[in-house]
Amino acid sequence: MPANGGRPGMTLELLGVGRRLANELGESLSVLVLGDSLTEAEGRDLIAHGADKVYIINDPMLSTYHPDTFAAATEQALRRLQPNIFLMGRSEIGQDVAPMVGFRLKTGLAMDCLDLQVDPATKKLIMIRPVYGGNARAHFMCTDFSPQMATVRPKTQDPAPRQEGRQGSVEFIDVALDPSVKRSDWVAYERWESTGGVSLASAEIVVSGGRGIGSTDAYQQTIEGAAGVLGGAAGASKACCDAGYAPPGNQVGLTGQRVSPKLYVAVAISGASQHIAGMGTSKAIVAINKDPDANIFKVARYGVVADYKQVMPSFIRKCQELVGSGE
Amino acid sequence: MALHLICCAKQVPDPETPAASFRIDPAAKKVVPAPGVAPVISPFDEQAVEVALKIKDARPDTKVTIISMGGASARDVVKHGLAMGADEGVLLDDPAFDGADAYQTAYALSQAVRKVGAFDAIFCGRQAADFDQGQVAIGLAELLGIPALINGQAAEFIDDRRVRFERVLPDGIGVFEAPTPVLTSYSQEVGQPRYPTLRNIMAAARKEITIWKSGDLGLDPAEFIPKTKLVDLYVPVYEGKCEIIEGENAADAGEKLALKLREAKII
Ligand SMILES: Cc1cc2nc3c(=O)[nH]c(=O)nc-3n(C[C@H](O)[C@H](O)[C@H](O)COP(=O)(O)OP(=O)(O)OC[C@H]3O[C@@H](n4cnc5c(N)ncnc54)[C@H](O)[C@@H]3O)c2cc1C
Ligand SMILES: Nc1ncnc2c1ncn2[C@@H]1O[C@H](COP(=O)(O)O)[C@@H](O)[C@H]1O
After folding, report:
1. What is the distance between the alpha carbons of residues B266 and B248, in angstroms, rounded to a whole number?
2. Which domains, and CATH codes, for chain B?
3. CATH number reported for the structural domain that contains residue A301 in this entry
4. Vertex B58: Cα angle to B53 and B63 (nearest 5)
5. CA distance, residue A101 to nearest chain B CA (Å)
6. Which of the listed residues B69, B135, B237, B243 has the most CB atoms within 10 Å of its CB?
7. ipTM
8. Is there a single domain that holds both residue A249 and residue A125?
9. Are the Cβ atoms of B233 and A312 closer than 8 angstroms?
10. pTM of the model
């Protein structure tokens, strides 16, 4: 896993929400960066994006990600800096490191927050997260411990814009990392074959198929076909992956990938809360389903109630014509 | 050497309950169980039990203990684990555990694990299908001072003292190895858990379940303190303004849909 948890945009999204909270609270915003050869210029760049202070830890043991070394470095930094609030992205790294550090500091943590607000009365953080597979929302607050910790769901926060001329300081801090902190070894990485050229996480257009697609051939033809024409990525529901129509890496949802594209086309997907948990924040959702009462229509902007086999060929053809026409 | 594996499993409202019958009591900040829908073992926890039992399949002298913290009804979760093939069951049942947060849950489980005794590996779900926190497994490992490998699809013992673990990552599988004792958590990629056989169901019915109250766990009141509190719980409302595109027939609707998206500058 690369040091940004595979989500390059996440840092700017955290800076976006962090800056907003810092302004509301009248506090300063610091960024902690872990690596092995980070430079002052990289710190300056974060200041341009809204940070007041940047703390950099360079250590050879942080050159590649490992939960134990990253947690140890983060824990030590937090003990020293004593922030009021500490945020991470809910990336692969956040899923390891945030609970490790939260338990070590014996403080409160909320995972996978959709939003963070300041409680006007207490000035404490309100951490808003989806629960029950997306069926419900919960607001959590920390009790009397600090830092108040949260991980933020990718693509829920506006990235911080770059502003030239912002002032701030960059400080290199040393931590004592003992090689013995590392208690497991990463021995191999087996990448799944990617189906298309565009990755799901970064695609601006996602076309997904559900169990109703019915076969691998139909998935390839209709879902991957439409994604190809629109220059997007192919996704799937869990039921579609479980049935073997789509590769496991294509799953969108609570336990699959979280996507938030400009356009999400759900074909023969019922819209279970666990699926919506992964795509509900898309800018425009289109649903094609033969059941007029399917839950997916509750979150969709445009819908077609019909058999996808009749709708999709002409949809794809028309898209090709429109998109191919050049503008 | 005979292995001892511990599975932690939680009882949750059935996550397959259709969204339409999902209700919340906002004052109590609790889910109102849908009529006629029985609570279940959290699906990822069932998958964790499956991984432990696969290890037992290969090494039949392995002992598998299942622990659940919950009300009296969570006995069903322990029984389910036994019926799948676990050997021992422990239920942590005490009113003091109601509404426990992630820290308290992990702390109580850690005390229970210490009381159960020596073990080689712990098996958890990646997140419980109620609050979807994804904290308790790692927290439990932290409190026990052992490594945690999370979000897995498979695990095996390379030898008596080392585990090989496959973590599911967004674009592939990361293979990890760790010395025991180790905690591991699992996701749906494990695949379909086994169905209890009739023989195991009967055996499970006869099996005594150990019940521990908070007093049995020697909880330190200074440690058993919530770190977070739930201040609001509600069902989010979607705007629900779906424009249904119609046409002379389905094919025509498909074309109109494409035109609509172009008009709205979405494609
Ligand atoms: C803990 C947990 C985690 C989960 N995580 C995820 C997750 O990450 N992602 C996810 O997707 N699910 C997840 N699920 C599963 C989720 O609950 C649903 O079971 C799943 O999303 C259903 O997939 P589906 O909509 O494709 O299938 P179905 O619910 O079976 O829906 C199929 C739909 O296709 C329509 N259809 C059938 N044939 C046609 C046709 N010819 N033309 C048009 N429409 C047609 C039907 O009307 C129906 O609406 C999770 C479940 C649990 C319990
Ligand atoms: N009350 C409980 N009893 C037993 N195991 C639990 C309990 N709560 C959480 N766990 C375990 O910890 C995992 C993660 O839970 P959570 O952090 O609540 O999402 C679950 O999948 C279980 O394996």
Report:
1. 24
2. 4-223 (3.40.50.620), 237-267 (no CATH)
3. 3.40.50.1220
4. 50
5. 9
6. B135
7. 0.90
8. no
9. no
10. 0.89
